[in-house]
Design brief:
It is a single chain. The protein has helices at about 5-15, 25-40, 45-50, 60-65, 105-120, 135-140; strands at about 15-20, 70-75, 80-85, 90, 95, 125-130, 145-155, 155-165. It has a domain at about 5-125: Aminopeptidase (3-Layer(aba) Sandwich), CATH 3.40.630.30. The longest helix has 15 residues, at about 25-40. It has about 180 residues and is of the alpha+beta class. It has a four-stranded antiparallel β-sheet, with helices on both faces. The protein is built from six helices and eight strands.
């Protein structure tokens, strides 16, 4: 087995994915900021990246956004290294992995949890507004681009992609109908 696959397998065996707790606000804020700032520069200007992930992020607003929808946290050794969420209508607002832990299967693991939860809710569609940076992971996970668009953030115009994935509703066994 190639070394990079062994490393990914080892990392994934150390990962715990759990529900968001209020104490996660600060660490997830850092995951978000580091991910945007270090990964975003591949596709966006410095000005755009700083508008997207400024030095000062409203922690109260960020925490409320995490708490008002189902949010999952990926941890390694008790440290938050990624997160994603799912709104009641199937919208994925955020999927971020700390740059030091990217390309190790964490985003895929988070998306599997999101899709499983969506299926349990009877949803048949997941959708997101993906950054250019995250397009590849969403496409690998079966999302398709619906349209390119631009959004204004902090006085900057950023390109992103409206994407969706249609999912099969859960199959109920005859016994579960009683």
């Amino acid at each position: 087995m190639p070394r990079f696959l062994r490393k990914q397998e080892r990392v994934m065996s150390e990962v715990t994915i759990r529900s968001y707790a209020p104490d996660d606000c600060r660490p997830l804020n850092e995951v978000f900021r580091e991910s945007v700032r270090r990964t975003g520069l591949r596709h966006y200007s410095l000005e755009q990246v700083l508008a997207w992930a400024p030095d000062e992020i409203d922690s109260v607003r960020f925490g409320l956004r995490r708490a008002d929808r189902q949010t999952w946290v990926a941890e390694i050794g008790g440290k938050a290294v990624g997160f994603s969420d799912l709104e009641p209508d199937g919208h994925i607002d955020m999927l971020y992995v700390h740059p030091d832990f990217q390309h190790r299967g964490l985003a895929s693991a988070l998306l599997r949890v999101v899709e499983s939860a969506a299926g349990e809710r009877g949803l048949t569609r997941l959708y997101t507004e993906s950054s250019i940076c995250a397009r590849a992971i969403f496409e690998r996970f079966g999302f398709r681009v619906l349209a390119a668009q631009t959004v204004a953030i902090g006085g900057q115009i950023l390109a992103n992609l409206r994407m969706e994935k249609l999912i099969d509703p859960p199959v109920l066994s005859p016994a579960s109908n009683h």
